[in-house]
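note to self — DONT lose this again. spent like an hour looking for the file last time. sequence + predicted structure for the chain T wanted, 57 res
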Amino acid sequence: MSGEQKAEAKVEQGKGKLKETAGRLTGNERLTAEGRAEQATGDARQAKEKIKDTFKH
């Protein structure tokens, strides 16, 4: 499986975590929600890649 796609998923999860943390620190609920959404997207991408790997082997 493409290591690049897995790395992109990890980066997206990391960016989401940073946004969520920044939103919590500043009290910005919109930023917190955006961060959670980015993390969920990264989680979904990572799960997709794991499924692809499972069927490939």
